Each structure stands twice: as C-alpha cells, then as structure tokens.
Amino acid sequence: MAVRPRRGVVALAVLCGAGNQRGRLIVIPDMPSVLILGIDPTTVPGMDGSTIRAGLEQELARFGARAIDASMTLISLDGSAEPTVIAALSEREWDVVVIGGGIRKPEPLLPLFEQVVNLVRRYAPKAAVAFNTSGADSVEAAERWL
User: Fold this and answer.
1) Residue 98: beta bridge partners?
2) If DSSP states are collapsed to H, E and C, what string results for 47-98?
3) How far, in Å, CA of 8 to CA of 126, rounded?
4) pLDDT tens across 7-53, in order?
5) What is the pTM assigned to this prediction?
6) In contact, 112 and 79? CB cutoff 8 Å
7) 61-85, pLDDT tens digit by residue?
8) 78 — phi, psi (to 5°)?
9) How far from 121 is each of 97, 108, 115, 128, 130, CA to CA, in Å?
10) Angle in degrees, CA 36, 101, 117, rounded to 5
11) Number of Cβ within a 10 Å radius of residue 4
C-alpha cells in the first residue's frame, strides 16, 4: 500500500533489522515555502534604501526562526518587473506569495500591482496570496495561509 504524505511533509521509509521485518515510516515535516515580492528600496529616490533593506533581511531571518523557507525578490521601478517576478515565481512551487505594501499601496503603482497579481495567478497558481501591512509583518501574513 502506498502512503501519500500530505503536502508539506516528506515521508522517509527506513528499513531496519533482518529477514521479514517491516520498515518504519518516519514523517519529517517539510519547510513551507514563501516568496515575498516587494519594491527594491535602494531604487526609490529619497528613501533610505540601506536601512529599509536591513529591516527586510531581519524579516527573512524571522522566517528561518519559524522553520519557513523564505525568499525575497525586490523589484526595481525600471520596467524589469515582469521578468524579475516571473523568474522568482518559476523558481519552485511556492506555498504562499506575499505581495508587499510598496507594490500595492501607492496609487501610482496600481498597474504594477495588477501585473504582479496576474503573474502570481499565472506562474504560481497553487500558491496562496498574502498581503503584509509593512516589511516587518510578512511572517504573520504568510502564516495566515500556511
């Protein structure tokens, strides 16, 4: 009989002993995967990009502390958003994609927000979509859907 682990779990069969003894099935939790999409603060005029970037790196560390495999892709406002987002979404199957407030909050970026949402729908159709309120609560946004 085949055992199919639920999503997010890796099953490992261990054979032990000799003769006709059965192996044990050990279930090891697999780390859920989260992709965070945001605006690269170093490309926004008048913004202290290095300080904001340091905060984003701290947020990534919080994911690791909660056993969540997270990756962050930061988008420049130079027209390269689509290929950048497609590459990130195509990297693997994501459990959750968090779209940051820098993409969705400024009204002038509404077309970019729509583009990102539609790319997520197309290239990561199985992923839940989450929205953070700031760069410091992406973990909580993702956990709502894990």
Assistant:
1) 36, 130
2) CCHHHHHHHHHHHHHHHHHCCCEEEEEEECCCCCHHHHHHHHHHCCCCCEEE
3) 13
4) 444 444 444 444 445 555 555 568 899 999 999 988 888 888 888 88
5) 0.77
6) no
7) 999 999 999 999 999 988 889 999 9
8) -115, 15
9) 10, 22, 10, 9, 13
10) 65
11) 7
